[in-house]
Amino acid sequence: MKNNRLYTFPWREWLHYRLPIKTTAIITVILTAWPNMARAEGDGYTLPYEEKFSNLNTISLNPNPDNLTTYNGWTIYGCTLSQTGVDTNDNNKDYALSLRSNATTPTITTNTNYVQLSFWYSCTSENNPTTFSVTVNGGVFDNNESTKIFNSSSKTFVQTEQNIICDGNRTLSITFTLNSSGNYFRIDNVSLVSSSPTVISLNETANNSETLTTHNNHIRDVTLSRSLQPNIWNTMCLPFDVTKEELAALGTVDKVCTFTSVEDGYVMTFSDTESVAAGTPFLLRLTSVNDTKTFSDRVIKNTAPTGVSKTYNDKTFTFQGIYSPTNLLTNGTNVFLGTDGKLYKPSDSDHATINGMRAYFIVPGGTVGSVRIDGQDTEGIFMMTADDDVLQPWYSLDGQRKNAPQQKGIYIHDGKKVVVK
Fold first, then answer.
1. pLDDT: which is higher, 278 or 385
2. Considering only 35-39, 126-130, 156-160, 266-270, which range has the smallest mean pLDDT?
3. Do the beta carbons of residue 298 and residue 216 sit within 8 Å?
4. How far apart are the first and last CA of the chain?
5. Which terminus in the chain has less CB density within 10 A, N or C?
6. How far apart are the C-alpha atoms of 362 and 331, rounded to whole Å?
7. Across 49-170, where does the E strand assignment appear?
8. Could you count the other beta carbons within 10 Å of the beta carbon of residue 8?
């Protein structure tokens, strides 16, 4: 917080006593300007920061929206003094800032990407409900917007806490602006403190829809529970934008490809890409896989995964992404890329479930197609039999077979114990 303590020294008297008059005048000008020069460079305002407007009664205020008032580093337009603040009691009169226009905090150095803003607010008359906006200068709220709207219809102060993600400069200020013409709103006890990112988990064996709905359009760190294998093509679909460079959170990236065309012979062709939009399925080849797979500062987008479709000779082929376990059709129109690089169609419902954060192909019935990835062709479509290990079933500890885990617990999958949380 800003240190407002003032230290004084009778330097003018000392200069006049020790130095000639002309020299004293020059040094006096320099020393007089020095405090303002230091403040212009932004010294002193750091986290944790708090302003309670305790001495607001000591400055001249003017409700004219064009009138500028400065107070402890704040720039304020159109304000009056409210003698009823958050901390008012019988023995101590508290104050709040009553605004008819806008007010901006000083610029604050955060030294962190994550900050929590807290403030109390109310209207001045319950007959005149108030709408005001709060804008982050130098960052965004965790819903990826720089401005939020607040409504107040009560004279009783209400506290709100908002998470902020700073931009790369790690400095910010907050602006409070009246949106209801002619009314006032009050703010008090404004504070900014360091916080931590919100982390969510997405699991390939779980229904992720509730998590995605809860955190839609918010910035989150995302930990993936998604099995990947090195040196093969893994199908992927993620609910946030990602670049090839950012996919290093999963391991050492070799290639990233998206579905670009269908060519002669019904060859579904994939080409290199440097970025993938949220919900768009893609192919990923890693040379090594990380044990922990966490992406930072992702904007979660809970839109339905995209089916990328391409047409050839009036036949449409679709590469369909999924976020949660999905049952494929067994009529030959749904096929998937096996770990051996071949295309398979499930032979029965026991082999028809694929886990989440993957993709599969929707092809015209009776069509024999193949995939060309990075210039190399896969083999044609094969019927998967009960002996194939491309999609292994799950078993509960009491031996019941499952297409995919439907609840938390311990399961047997591919001959190993797996804990689903």
1. 278
2. 35-39
3. no
4. 42
5. C
6. 11
7. 49-51, 68-71, 74-82, 96-104, 108-109, 114-123, 130-137, 139-141, 147-152, 158-166
8. 5
